[in-house]
From TrEMBL:
FAD-dependent oxidoreductase 2 FAD-binding domain: residues covered: 5-45
Top-level taxon of the source organism: Bacteria
This protein's record includes keyword Oxidoreductase: yes
Name this protein carries in UniProt: FAD-binding protein
Originating species: Polyangium mundeleinium
Signal peptide: 1-20
Length: 419
């Protein structure tokens, strides 16, 4: 009889845990109430924090290199179908909406890869949208150290890329959804070809090699490759901080991915998980029927994704001081786990009011911030008997997509094996 594995969370860690557990022969039930941190990502796919990659190259005096990824990480990415993970240099470079150029191990297929465009001109169409100042973004990108080192130049141009008046005001996601329509994508391609023709007359000896747009090219799937083919040069999106079209595309692929795996999806909020002998029982918010499983993987995200919540003692205080000190962080569900930082399991703090977040909330030198490091204490991914953890909910692990995938794969395989 197959083991039944419960996965909590439908982000990168949860999906990879379900992928591994199914490949190990387990029946999988995935419970998720909605979007998490993976749905908030901008589309850069990192294995290590990108700042560390730049710092290492600078210290070693060598080009930015790519590390070989484990085969199962690549297999998961291929099954998901929305990421490009190149297996050879140069690494992808993506341009941020804030005017930075930064490396990544991979990218959502909608983002423009600037890594192979050394010494080329990239055009940014002007558009009257909040957050899209093509002139300012182009000037800042051109002055970025990576751009100067690789000879990349960014220039703003006039182009009619908004078709209706409301497109100056609607969200990036709504504009991205309009480009899921083939006719609308064709209209945009015509406008970009016209802009490129005008630019070629001004720069006959140095035609543009790419067009950079906002996070607007498809909500159900990335339309950048199709648009590039129609336009004749590479076209893609810039990386935005939170709430991008890449996040919408990640959400859109979840159901198809789980259906292909044969994973049962339950849309509900987990409330508690308890052990009863050699079985686990999950209680949900909207359905009183408990889900029984042989093992479970908690992949609900960290502080950013809502899996870990900040609950200092003073939140429960009235006019007086809190009645007692308490650990200021908690898992968002009741579960038999221990929370930790890099130093080890958390304990009651000396102050009645929790840690000094003004001192610890942000990274300092090589030390990660408290908000990034706090999570479940789970050596090797095992948080308790029959209970595993993966992704940003783990303590003191890098908060990157490929780290979440790798930990999800480990947890999924471990949960599918008999104890």
């Amino acid at each position: 009889m197959s083991r039944r594995v419960l996965v909590l969370g439908a982000g990168a860690a949860g999906l990879s845990a379900a992928f591994a557990a199914r490949n190990s022969g387990a029946d999988v039930v995935l419970v998720s109430a909605g979007a998490g941190a993976s749905s908030l990502g901008g589309g850069a796919v990192d294995d290590v924090p990108w700042e560390e990659r730049i710092h290492a190259a600078r210290v070693l005096g060598s080009p930015i290199e790519l590390h070989t990824l484990p085969p199962e990480v690549v297999a998961f990415s291929n099954a998901l179908g929305i990421w490009d993970l190149p297996d050879r240099a140069p690494p992808p470079f993506v341009a941020t909406i804030a005017g930075r150029l930064r490396p990544a191990r991979g990218r959502d297929k909608g983002l423009l890869d600037l890594g192979a465009l050394r010494g080329k001109r990239v055009l940014l169409p002007r558009a009257p949208r909040a957050g899209w100042d093509a002139d300012a973004i182009a000037a800042t990108l051109s002055d970025d150290p990576l751009a100067r080192r690789t000879g990349l130049r960014f220039e703003a141009i006039d182009a009619s890329i908004l078709r209706f008046a409301d497109e100056a005001r609607i969200s990036d996601g709504d504009l991205a959804a309009r480009h899921d329509d083939p006719a609308r994508l064709g209209w945009l391609a015509e406008r970009l070809r016209e802009a490129l023709t005008s630019d070629a007359r001004l720069h006959p000896d140095e035609p543009a090699s790419a067009v950079l747009l906002g996070s607007w090219l498809g909500a159900r799937a990335a339309r950048a490759d199709e648009l590039s083919e129609r336009v004749g040069v590479s076209v893609g999106e810039a990386l935005v901080g939170v709430g991008s079209a890449a996040g919408l595309r990640f959400d859109a692929v979840q159901r198809k991915f789980l259906d292909t795996l044969g994973v049962q999806r339950i849309v509900d909020r987990a409330v508690s998980i308890v052990r009863d002998g050699d079985r686990l029982h999950l209680t949900r918010a909207r359905d009183t029927t408990k889900i029984v499983a042989d093992a479970a993987v908690i992949a609900m995200g960290g502080v950013a994704g809502g899996g870990i919540v900040y609950e200092p003692p003073e939140h429960g205080a009235g006019e007086d001081l809190p009645a007692r000190g308490a650990i200021p962080f908690a898992l968002s569900i009741d579960a038999p786990v221990v929370l930790a930082l890099a130093r080890g399991p958390l304990d009651v703090v000396a102050s009645m009011h929790g840690p000094e977040l003004d001192q610890t909330a942000w990274p300092k030198d090589a030390a990660p911030s408290t908000l990034e490091a706090v999570g479940i204490h789970a050596p090797g991914g095992r948080a308790a008997p029959f209970l595993f953890a993966a992704g940003d909910v783990l303590a003191a692990r890098p908060r990157t997509l490929l780290e979440a995938v790798a930990s999800g794969l480990r947890a999924g395989h471990a949960a599918a094996r008999p104890a």
